[in-house]
Amino acid sequence: MKKVRVWDLPTRLFHWVLAVLIVVSVVTQYIGGNAMTWHFRSGYAVLTLVAFRILWGIVGPRYARFSSFLYGPSTILGYVRGKDATGRLGHNPLGGLSVFVLLGAVLTQAVTGLYANDDIAWDGPMVKFISKELSDKITWFHKDVSATAIFVLVGLHLLAILFYRFVKKRNLTRPMLTGDQEVDFDAEPANDSWGTRLLALAILAVCAGVVYYLVTLPATRF
Question: Is residue 97 predicted with pLDDT exceeding 90?
Fold first, then answer.
């Protein structure tokens, strides 16, 4: 067995920071009141991170790229039926599908939050551009549909980790912490150089700038 760098530092940080921000968003939503300030901030941070991950999935290292875990329906079904993907690093076919679904759900939740309101004191930064009726509909979707979907998906994600850990005897958490995975075959490592990390930082800064620009647009702009 030998160790191969699979997950670059930017991808690992994205994973863990996003997990923390989702917890912060849920907790602050339930607390309400002044905690909603942090709910909005965490939402902006989530939107920034997801935008970064989408770009990183295009230009990032080999195993972070969407192309490395974009599988067709037949491959995914075959994996579910027990045709294990051997000699392959990164996300397996089912794990790759979960990444796309989770990213889509989290992106939907973050975007709809920009247009949501609580009918009391808090409005999303984009509410001023739409009607109250439309904002109410988006708020319902944000609170009842999209949020529920994320709870379900996160629960399935955790169950999958436990299944692999105790049934398949594979620790999926350690590689996401250390970046390395033990394999018994030859494989190309991911590029996790400081140049790659600086590129990720630059992309993150651009995404943060775009999100800041959007959430601070004055109503008179349109």
Answer: yes
Cα gap 96→78, rounded to integer Å = 14
Any idea what the CATH number is for the domain that residue 142 is in?
Answer: 1.20.950.20
Q: Return all residues near 99 (Cβ < 8 A) that are at least 6 apart.
A: 69, 91
State the alpha helices, DSSP H only, in the chain: 9-31, 36-59, 73-80, 93-114, 132-140, 147-166, 173-178, 194-215
Range of the domain at 196: 2-221
For residue 221, is pLDDT > 60? no
The pLDDT tens digits for 42-79 are: 999 999 999 999 999 999 999 999 999 999 999 889 88
Three-state SS at 3: strand
Pairs from 155-163 (Cβ < 8 Å, separation ≥ 24): 156/98, 157/98, 157/102, 160/94, 160/95, 160/98
Largest CA-CA distance found in the chain, in angstroms, rounded: 62
Q: How many domains does the chain have?
A: 1
pLDDT digit string (tens) for 105-119?
Answer: 999 999 999 999 998
What is the model's pTM?
0.94
